[in-house]
Amino acid sequence: MFRAYPRHSVDISKKEYLTLFSMIFSRRFHEGEHIDQFEKKFAEYTGTKYAKTVSSARLGLYLLLKYYDLSENSEVIITPFTHQSIFTVIKSFPVRVVFADIDEDTYNVTPEQVERLITPDTRLLILTHMWGQPGRMHEFAQLAEKYGFRIVEDCAMACGAEYGGTKAGCFSDASIFSFGKAKAISTFGGGMVCTNDMNIAEFIENTTAGYRPVKKSSLVVSVINAVIANILTRPSVFYFTLYPVMRFLNIRDPYNPVEHKKGSSEILENIPEGWKVGFSNLQAAIGIIQLENLDSANSLRRRNAQLLNRMLSGMESVGVPEAVPGAGHIYLY
Predict the structure, then answer these.
(1) What is the domain range of residue 109?
(2) In a domain, 179, yes or no
(3) Cα distance between residue 188 and residue 168, in whole Å
(4) 257 belongs to a structural domain
(5) Does residue 180 fall inside a structural domain?
(6) pLDDT at 330
(7) Residue 256: what pLDDT?
(8) DSSP per position, 167-230
(9) For the chain, which residues score pLDDT lower than 70?
């Protein structure tokens, strides 16, 4: 059986290269006006009142669960088909995880499946927008209002996705975004928590205020890796260099977002020290540029996906991705 090798490109524009080289060795690397600007622009883009930068999406989820302070009998409904780091975080709290099965066409959970699992102890629903496609968000919101539980949207793969013309991330009490490699916005690591609740926003900001600055050396390594990936994943280069090497060495897809990885069995008594880092001014500057180009980049990805769907739809042995009516799928991978 041939192994599949998706070409997850890391797009870096000329403007981003200029920003990197002008800031990476300057005093503006850590501190400056770009962090506040990025947070305000991102909140405006998603349609939420507040957006707070964090070092990773998993830290954002950890802080949200800390804020909610759920009791030992609390039930959290979640899909079993998501990134392993989500479970590393949830297992660190005294809650009971309830798995909702996914729809086999979209890989998202459905409102019908969730409603069957709701009990008087249900306190939280974590919704993963798998591959960049939101579920039927209005129906999930109605369930939350009917049964009195909270919703956290996992938008790590769905930055810029929509449902009913509204951006993903604003249908819930709070949402988490990832800015890692191979994401719709990549700031060489980091993430965002969005919410309309001022208390949540203040809790995130106050908790992360004392975190140490991200090490310049580690961020430089991330930048170098992204630049190399940017070159090697270009179609003409990928086919003649990286692809044959991966085939020859039988290397698996390094960006598989649902693969079980070492360390995912850990239970965190406290926030790991490695998570307690800030979001740099440089990352925010790159985020602002990428946010400006996000809709056009998602539109291009969407057109390419629809073209592939049309070309493959007549093949009996191939199933193409199914889009939820009303959802603005961004086809991240």
Answers:
(1) 12-226+270-333
(2) yes
(3) 22
(4) no
(5) yes
(6) 96
(7) 52
(8) ETTSSSSEEEEE-STTSSS-SSS-EEEEES-HHHHHHHHHHHTTPBPPPHHHHHHHHHHHHHHH
(9) 1-8, 251-270
pLDDT tens digit sequence for 58-86? 999 999 999 999 999 899 999 999 988 89
Among candidate residues 40, 4, 8, the one with its CA nearest the CA of residue 287: 40
Give the CATH number for residue 131.
3.40.640.10
Whether residue 232 is contained in a domain is answered as no
Are 85 and 264 in contact by the 8 Å Cβ rule? The answer is yes
String of b and e for 301-324 (b: at least 16 CB within 10 Å)?
bbeebeeeeeeeeeeeeeeebebb
Residues known to be catalytic: 183
Number of domains in the chain: 1
